[in-house]
Amino acid sequence: MWNVAVPVPLRRTFLYEVPQEIGDPVAGARVLVSFGRRMLVGYLLSESRSTQDPGFKIKKVESLLDDEPALPAELLAFLVEAADYYMHPIGEVLRSALPPGIDPLTSGGSVRAPRVKDRVHKVVTACSLASGALDEMTRRAPKRAAVLAMIVESGPLALPRLRSVYSDASKHVRRLVQDEMVSVEERERPPDPFWLTSVDRDTPPTLTAQQDSAVTSIVAAIDSGGYRGFLLQGITGSGKTEVYLRAIEEATSHGRGALVLVPEITLTPQLVNRYRARFGESLAVWHSGLTDRERFEQWKLLRGGVVKVAVGVRSAVFAPVEDLGIVVVDEEHDGSFKQERGFPYNARDLALLRAARAGAVAVLGSATPSMETFHNADIGKLTRLELTSRPTRQPLPEIEIVDLTTHGFGPGGQKVISEPLHAELTRILEQKEQAILFLNRRGFAPSLICSSCGNALRCDDCAVSLTYHSRPPGVMCHYCGARRPAPKACPSCGASDLEPLGMGTQKVEELLAQLYPSARVARLDRDSAMGRGAQPVLDLLRQGEIDILVGTQMVTKGHDFPRVTLVGVLLGDVGLHMPDFRAAERTFALLTQVAGRAGRSSLGGRAVIQTYSPGHPAVAFARTHDYGSFAAYESENRKELGYPPFGRLAALRLSGHDGPRVEMAARDIFSNLRDAWRRIDRPPISMLGPVPAPIPYLQNRYRWRIMLRATRQIQIRKLLSEVVSQIESPPTGVRIRLDIDPVSML
Ligand code: ADP
Ligand code: ZN
After folding, report:
1. How many other CB atoms are found less than 10 A from the CB of residue 101?
2. Ligand 2 centroid from CA 717, angstroms
3. The domain boundary residue, chosen from 45, 78, 109
4. Do 440 and 541 have their domain in common?
5. 172, 496, 709, 714: which could form a disulfide with 144 (CB 3.0–4.6 Å)?
6. Domain identity same for 363 and 427
7. Is residue 166 located within the same domain as residue 265?
8. What is the domain range of residue 171?
C-alpha cells in the first residue's frame, strides 16, 4: 500500500495499492488514480503497512507516470512539511511545485497526452532585410509586418512565444519563410529572452574588507556542511550581489547546487547577466514570463542535474536543484515573495525551511530587512553580516524633506512639483544629468469626481474608485482590471461635471513636459511597459536618451545609473496610511530603495522626498538612512500590539457573491472557533472578527475575515485544526481560504 497525495482540497492522503505489473513504485513519482468518479494525477508519498483506509475504499493505482520521481526525496520531504505548516492540502501543494502542463489530461475520464512534451523547439530567426522592407510591408500587410517586427526586434524567438502574442503567427511565419524573410530551425534548448545575447565572463572584483569578511563566514558555513542562516544587511549599492556570487561559486566548486530567489521586478536581463557572467550557461532562469514549455525545459535542466544554479522568482523555491549547498533570497523584505492565490506561502520563509532540511546555507539579503528577519538576527536564529559602505566609497545621497503642509504650489501651479524640487530639476537639466521621479500611482488621476454632486466614479465589481487614464483614455479599476470609456456625465446626478482628482504618473508626465519643454521626459509604469517589462525604458535611461524618468515602483529597482544624480519622491505618504500594520515598514523600505538610486557614481547625488508627514518615523529615519533607529521604533510598536515578529497571525478569508450568506458563514465559523477554543482549554489566542475586509467587495465578491493572533504559530494551528472539516466544506457559494502568516491586510 502507498500513501498517495491527490490534488483535491482535502488535508489528508489516501491509500492505494500499486500492482506489481505496472512497475517499480518510488516516492515522489506521479501516478494515475481513480478518485471518486474522476481520474486524477496523484503523487506517491510513502509506503504504508495499513490495509484499511477508513471511509475510503482502497483501489489500485492505474498507472505509474514516472520511472524517476518527478519530486526528488529532498524536495518531497520539504513540500510535505510546507503543506503541514501552511495547513494546505498536500496534493495541491505538490501540484503547484511542478511545472504546469506536464500531467496527462484526465478530464471527462479519458486520459490524453500532457500539454507540455519533450520536443524540439521551433525557433524563428529573421534574415537580413532590405532597408525599408519592413515599412513597405507595414503598408501592404500590417499584421505580418508586426510579426516580422517582433522577430527582428527580439532576435531568435520560439514559435509558441510568438503565438502567445499573435495567435495566427504560424500563418504569417509560413509566408515570411516563403518570402525568405525569416528562417525556422529546430533547437534543443529554448531561446529564453534572457539567453539571446552571449555574455562575456567577468573578472571578479577584489572584495572590500567587509565583503571579504561576509564571504568568509558564509563559505566556512558551506564547507562545514549542515544548515546555517545569515542575514546580509548591506546598504543600497554595497555589493551584496558580489557576496552571493562568491558564496555560490564556493558551493558549486564542491559540486553542490544553488538557488537564488529575487523579486519579480528585479529579475531583469541585467541581473541575470551578472550571474551568467560568472556561471556561464549553467544557469536555469525561472520567471512568470516563460511559456509552460520553457518552464518545463528549465525544470528538466535542473531535475536532470545538467545545471546546478537556478535564479528565479518566488515559485523557484520549489525548483528541483540537486544537492543544495546555498539558498539566497535577495531583497528579502520584498512583498512579492508572498504568494496570495492557490497555495498561499511565503517564499522567504520556505527558503529558510528548505535550506534547513537540505542541510544548506541560507543567505537573506537586504538594505532594509523585514522586521521578521531583523528579529531573527536579534535572537540569533540568523547570523548578521553587515556591509555599511559602498565599494566605490560613494556616500549615500543626501535627502531633503519637503513638507507639503507648509509649501504652497510649485511653479507649475501644483504641489506635486514643489519649488525646491523644481529648482533641483532645473539644475540637473543644466548640468546634463538625469533624474528619476517616483509616484506610486499609475494613470492620470486616482479618481474621477462629479463636481456637482461630489460622487466618485466606482468600479461596478469592487468597492474602490476608478482611476482615470489619459492614454489610452478611459477609466480603469486597478483591482480587477476592468476598463471602459469615461462617461460624459455623472452616473448619479447626470451633470457633465466629471473632473479628475489627484495625480497619477500620466499627469505628472504632462506637467513635466509643460515645465521643461526641452527636456526628454519618459514614463515607466505598468501601462507604458505594456508587458515588455521595464528593460527597454531603463536601457534608454542608461544610454542617456532620457533626462527625467517618472514612474511607479518599477523605477525603484534595477541597477546603477551613473548619471542619475537626483531622485524625487513626489508623494512619500502614499501607502503610509493604509489599514495595515506593515504600512510604516513598507514606506521606510520604499523610500530607502528609491533614494538609493541616486548618486551611484562620482557625480554624487541627492534625493528630495515630498510628504505631508515629515515627522513620521518612516520618513524621518529614511532621511538619515537610519535603519537601526527605525527598526527599534517599529519593534516597540509591534511588541506592544503583539504583531509579528512578536506575535503570529493567521487569517481566515471568506468570500462569495451573496453577501448575507458570506457573513453568516463567517459568524458560523467564528462561533465554532470559540467553541473549539474553550474545548482545548482556552489557549492564549486572540480571535478578531468576523469583520468585513477593508475592501469589503472585490471582483464581485463580498469579503469577510477572521484574524487569529498568538505568541506562537503552533497554538493557532492547533486551534484551526479543530475546524478543518468546516473549512473544507463551506456552504455552497462561499469560499474559505486559510492564510498562515498573512501579508495582505486588504
Ligand atoms: P547591492 O546589491 O548591495 O545594492 P550591488 O551588488 O548591485 O549592490 O553592487 C553595486 C555596484 O558595486 C555594482 O556595480 C557592483 O558591480 C559593484 N561592486 C560590488 N563589489 C565590488 C568590489 N568589491 N569592488 C568594486 N566594485 C564592486
Ligand atoms: Zn474592479
Report:
1. 15
2. 33
3. 109
4. yes
5. 172
6. no
7. no
8. 121-187
When divided into structural domains, the chain yields a total of 5
Ligand 1 center to residue 354 CA distance, Å?
Answer: 28
8 A C-beta contact, residue 124 and residue 166: no
* Residue tagged 463636481 (cell numbers): 451
Domain of residue 715, CATH code: 3.30.70.600
Q: Among 607, 565, 604, 602, which residue's Cα sits nearest to residue 590?
A: 607
Ligand showing the shortest atom-to-Cα distance for residue 478: 2
Q: Mark which of 48, 76, 109 sits at the end of a domain.
A: 109
pLDDT for 48 equals 92
Residues 264 and 346 in one domain: yes
Does 140 fall in a domain?
A: yes
- Read off the pLDDT of residues 177-221 as tens digits, 9 standing for 90 and up: 999 899 998 776 655 555 545 567 788 999 999 999 999 999 999
Q: Is the pLDDT of residue 303 over 90?
A: yes
Residues 379 and 404 in one domain: no
- 678-692 pLDDT, tens digit each: 999 999 999 998 999
Q: Ligand 1: residues whose CB is within 6 Å?
A: 205-208, 211, 234, 236-242, 391, 559-560
In total, the chain counts a number of residues equal to 746
Report the CATH number at residue 350: 3.40.50.300
Domain for residue 200, yes or no?
Answer: no
664 φ, ψ to 5°? -60, -45
Confidence of residue 536 (pLDDT cuts 50, 70, 90): confident
Q: How far apart are CA 348 and CA 345, in angstroms?
A: 9
Residue 670 scores a pLDDT above 60: yes
What's residue 532's pLDDT? 63
In the predicted structure, residue 545 carries a pLDDT above the cut 90? yes
pLDDT digits (tens, 9 = 90+) for 723-735: 999 999 999 999 9
For the entire predicted model, the pTM comes to 0.89
pLDDT at 314 over 90: yes
59 shares its domain with 166: no
In a domain? residue 7: yes
Nearest ligand to the CA of 457 is: 2
Q: How many whole angstroms separate alpha carbon 351 and alpha carbon 341? A: 19
Specify the pLDDT at position 109.
67
Residue closest via CA to ligand 1's atom 14 equals 560
The DSSP code sequence of 406-472 is T----TTSSSSS-HHHHHHHHHHHHTT-EEEEE-S--SSBSEEEETTT-PBPB-SSSSSBPEEEETT
Q: State in Å: Cα 559 to ligand 1 middle.
A: 10
pLDDT band at 107 (very low <50, low <70, confident <90, very high): confident
- Do residue 254 and residue 338 come from a single domain? yes
Please name which ligand lies nearest the alpha carbon of 463. Answer: 2
Taking 3-state DSSP, the helix, strand and coil percentages for the chain, each rounded to the nearest 5, stand at: 35, 25, 40
| Helices 269-279, 535-542: crossing angle, 10 deg rounding | 80
Tell me whether residue 473 is in a domain: no
Gyration radius (Cα) of the chain, Å: 27
- Are 524 and 666 found together in one domain? no
Quote the pLDDT of residue 194. 54
